[in-house]
Amino acid sequence: MTNQPTSFPKATIEGYPRVGPQRELKKALEAFWAGKIDQETFESAAHSLRVDTYARLKDLGLNEDYAIPADVAYYDQVLETSLTVGAVGGDAAEVSLEEEFALARGNSERAPLEMTKWFDTNYHYIVPEIADGQKFVARPQRIVKLVEEARAQGHAVRPYLVGPVTVLALSKQAEGSNGQPLERLDELVESYIHVLAALADAGVAWVQLAEPATVADLAVADDTQIAAHLEAAYTKILAAENRPQVYLTTPYGSARAGLDALAKVAPEALHVDLSVGTQALDSDYVNRVKNTVDTAKTQLVAGLVDGRNVWAGNLRALRETFEQFDGASVSTSVSLQHVPHTVEAEPNLPVDVAAWFSFANEKIGEVVALAAGPLDAAEAYARADRAVRTRAESTRTHNQQVADRTAALPKGQVQREPAFAERQEAQKALGLPALPTTTIGSFPQTSDIRKARADHRAGNLTDEQYVEELRKEVASVIELQERLGLDVLVHGEPERNDMVQYFAELLDGFVVTENGWVQSYGSRCTRPPIVVGDVSRPKAMTVEWAKYAQSLSQKHVKGMLTGPVTILAWSFVRDDVHQSVSADQIGVALADEVKDLEEAGIEIIQIDEPALRELLPLREEDRPSYLDWAVRSFRLVSLDAAPTTQIHTHLCYSEFGQIIDAVAGLDADVTSIEAARSRMELLQDIDEKFHSEIGPGIYDIHSPRIPSVAEMAELIRAALKHVPLERLWVNPDCGLKTRGYEETEQSLRNMVLARDEVAANLKVSVNA
Ligand code: GLN
Ligand code: ZN
Questions:
Q1: Residue 684: what pLDDT?
Q2: 0.70 cut: is pTM over it?
Q3: Whether residue 592 sits in one domain with residue 491
Q4: Residues 383 and 453 in one domain
Q5: 674 CB under 6 A from ligand 1?
Q6: Domain limits at 361?
């Protein structure tokens, strides 16, 4: 190493939210994309955000050199790393904004790169596509500038890159290429070595390389293969003479074979995820780390503070774990990008609850307190003790009635009676035609509705006026569907700002934040609700809307619910009970809603579970038990539905091959599922086990393009090769919320015509 080795800081974090406390980056990005600000203004906004962040992190206690990670990215960290090491993009010395945003968002010449979930979080990264001919040209200019910009403000920050093994493990083969991305590891490592040399020349003493690929069971390579790749890559990287010291991180779970490999190659510092959640899944991890990592060669960094939840940590317990590692440093388990900035931005939270939370800034306080110890940080420990105690004792956390009710539920898997075949027979009474047409629930959210919602929130519209606006919208959505000749109608969901937040606001046991934004992807942020305690339903949540819509039509209107798994997947969950406990509670709360809908005369009810795939554990061995409780919670919702009530479910956002048995296990009567983008690929996975009726989406709602009658008829015919006529439904891929009315109307009209054409060819009647 060229530079004088400096020791690793005692306290650090894996990463920090990038969007800014006031969503500054989001606003700058969107203004730039819309052409409202020029490049210079954009870059200066991003620059201010970065330097403000560094200053804040220093104030919060990350005041040693290299304690602050420069994990900044305009759009996504995988994309920026990939550009820096030349895995994607061109080869001009400096990465341009235009180039970066074209890859992320597409332009008139090219479609955007795909986006997918980053491990088991709600963050989505850009999937690099590796072409056979792609030369990996190192382009360190931007990352070097980051270091210099920080230095000019007096900060020695730690540049951040996703490591080469993880970049390739998460990449896909470009179309028309033959090579698997991971086969190119040697070449890519050369490029990292160049980037590291440039950082060393710029005087950087520590660089962070994140290798979370080692904590997951991935389809492209098993654990042992990943470990072998890590060993090969880091043997080379660490052998390079001109480089900063390497801080290698393994967030999002426990490393197995990878831990041995990394201990063996011995980077100067190694981070392990020792959060309570990770230890719960791998109880031996602390011991393995202790016995495997040679701390004479490698500075161990204990990722004790949980970066994935919003709860104040039990500092005393964490400190006890920490003391098992002599001379270790403290960090967070994962980047804090997954939590909001600060609890201080939530003045309206109930005070007792606010004290239980710890967002990014507060978690930094925990890291610092853990490193300092209970003598030097006595106040922080006392505060943590209080939070742990009051939370455990609170009636907000424990509701005896809820506990009694779920305790009385049957154990193990539950089963709706009678079985599907008999229900299908009973549901003939619904009088639906062959190849019934429907939509997934939401209709375009017009600017009028958004304005009404904002006016209502601001107090400029009374509750009555607001409801009146929404009813008008429902009436027009019903009228439109009648006009288009759809068979099963929806009310359009105008009252829902978000399919999870809507229910979280109406259920007891949740709190919602005002400024708790976290980045979902690019400039998109969500504000996940927080499950603080036992969940129950004080009163009906959707019945009035369904009833009103149904009163306007002779056709069936579907009731519309969000399922327990999706509610949990898009919320911050409890850490004091297993997720299955909350899932059961939400399951029975929604079962009451089903009953109320039935009583209101609603005979078709959809329970959306688009996120079923999202919570799938990273390790295969943990998946069956997850799927078991997830499926159970869904089944609880429909358990007591009448045989004549047709239960629908809807799934989207991912490949379903891995969980197709669980989807079948939901035992819904009708399953609608995203399929158009993959041209019905999923139908290959449909087999005898999948008995329900099924509606594979026949048009992609993510694009404003209006699909033709011919192409949708083609997809219906393709589906009929796998699904018999009596079981096939015709619908779009997902809700229409993000679309405009004009395209929606034309697309749905074409969809109904496509169905009519296929039916006419088959000589089946579509009149009910
Ligand atoms: N019913 C919801 C809608 O139509 C489903 C959304 C989803 O699957 N993401 O908007
Ligand atoms: Zn969907």
A1: 79
A2: yes
A3: yes
A4: no
A5: no
A6: 24-393
